[in-house]
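Chain A, query sequence.
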Amino acid sequence: ADSFRSRFVLFGDSITQQSFSEGGWGARLADGFARKVDVLNRGYSGFTTVTCQPLLPHVFPAGVSNLLATVFFGANDSAQPAAENNQHVPLPAYESNLSLIVQHVKQTSKHVVLIAPPPVDKARWPNRSNDTVALYAAAAARVAAKEKVLFVNLYELMLPLDWHSMLNDGLHLSKHGNRFVFERLMECLPFREIDLPFDFPGWKEMNPADPASSLRPDAIDKLPYPCRKLL
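Chain A, predicted structure.
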């Protein structure tokens, strides 16, 4: 069953898992939509478009709807094949996997934002390169166009800028990078925080003599701001 409060589900690898760290893009979303949306972090460090697929029915179960979902994979898929690294996913497989993932997520999510991986510092991550990341970002762009979902091409947006300062270890986002992702994501959304309803009136609109009366539909209708009515 649907929850009382709207939901954002952030689905991805370590860049998503770390998004709830101090200043993280996921934490900024949770703060920006406080009291209006539950922001769920479903980031899994080291995962790829192959290893995340069995998670889909658990992260996006049938019958539970989301206002928004982000899909953010590719940083691991684009790693070069190596004996000690089983994360590499060939480009054609990455593209087809991403389509399948987005198709599943669309079934339960009103809005889907596909995010391409950021640039990578090859000096610090020798088994990765921007030449390869560019190809995976282009594949993500094709998937977004094909599946008609929102798209943030993080690779192309960051590359002309001082992108090294946006990474804290050459791969994962720094506070500056997290802020950049949050801002680009907010620009992409087809709704604004102010447009979404609060759940329950503000404390000043609660009647201390009869608090329950403040939750009645007629009381909610009189509020000067959008507020969700009880089911």
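The two ends are 12 Å apart (CA to CA). The CA atoms of residues 177 and 214 lie 42 Å apart.
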